[in-house]
Design the sequence.
């Protein structure tokens, strides 16, 4: 994977404010016109009148770095933010996130853009010691329909042939597999069961006093569950049920068996690989 550095100099979009990243946000350019590739979008960011920016722009041929990762970009600005984003990131998530823009120009290959973005995301996560629970859609932070192919079902079907949630879960699985060498959610039939989610404890969970703890949001979303966060009481609910959690660096962890029960899954432990497998009857 090669990264072309073309740092913008537009001070309106590059304030030069230092940040300590806590998460990685995925966007789309929403510009399907021919020629709207990574260079074109970088040049747009560099116009003196442009107030938006992201750290990386990816098309089907290259990855362009527009900002250093330790500088703030303007990619998730909004009048208000979702409570979970405020609790896990900050009151102004631009000050602690890295942004990636995915190009969708008509004369490019989205499949290649997708693969380059997976590689870039895995590289960033690896360098910071993060797991896929640090991946965010723009939508997760502000509610904006971005990237639309991970938020809107019709757009997701057009680009990836899946529902938006399935497409987002697939992206996280692809990043996880490249990051760890293991699939996060293999769909392999075993007897009368199918693996719903698999997380390797060495990289995405915790083993405490013989009890396996897993990241709630990443696992529940991968299994199709609904996670809600109440910041005032620090309460996590999964499918409407409260769940006792531990918190580490802004991430909620819960015992695998308790979370599995709320998701209608069964837990299996692979001692050789030190992995927790969660299965759903089919």
Sequence:
């Amino acid at each position: 994977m090669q990264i072309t550095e073309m740092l913008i100099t537009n001070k309106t979009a590059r304030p030069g404010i230092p940040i300590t990243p806590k998460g990685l946000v995925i966007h789309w350019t929403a510009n399907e016109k021919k020629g709207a590739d990574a260079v074109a979008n970088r040049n747009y960011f560099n116009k003196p009148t442009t107030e938006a920016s992201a750290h990386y722009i990816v098309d089907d041929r290259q990855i362009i770095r527009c900002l250093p990762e330790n500088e703030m970009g303007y990619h998730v600005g909004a009048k208000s933010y979702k409570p979970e984003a405020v609790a896990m990131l900050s009151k102004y998530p631009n000050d602690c996130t890295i942004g990636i823009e995915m190009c969708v120009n008509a004369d490019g290959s989205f499949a290649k853009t997708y693969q380059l973005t997976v590689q870039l995301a895995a590289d960033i996560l690896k360098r910071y010691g993060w797991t896929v629970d640090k991946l965010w859609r723009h939508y997760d932070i502000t509610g904006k329909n971005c990237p639309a192919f991970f938020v809107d079902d019709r757009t997701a079907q057009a680009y990836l042939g899946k529902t938006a949630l399935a497409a987002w879960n697939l992206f996280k699985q692809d990043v996880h597999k490249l990051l760890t060498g293991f699939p996060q959610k293999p769909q392999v039939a075993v007897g009368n069961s199918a693996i719903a989610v698999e997380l390797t404890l060495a990289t995405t969970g915790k083993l405490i006093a013989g009890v396996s703890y897993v990241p709630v949001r990443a696992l529940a979303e991968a299994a199709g569950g609904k996670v809600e966060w109440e910041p005032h009481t620090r309460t996590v609910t999964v499918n409407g049920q409260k769940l006792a959690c531990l918190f580490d660096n802004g991430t909620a962890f819960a015992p695998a068996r308790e979370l599995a029960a709320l998701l209608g899954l069964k837990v299996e432990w692979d001692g050789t690989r030190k992995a927790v497998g969660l299965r759903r009857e089919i």
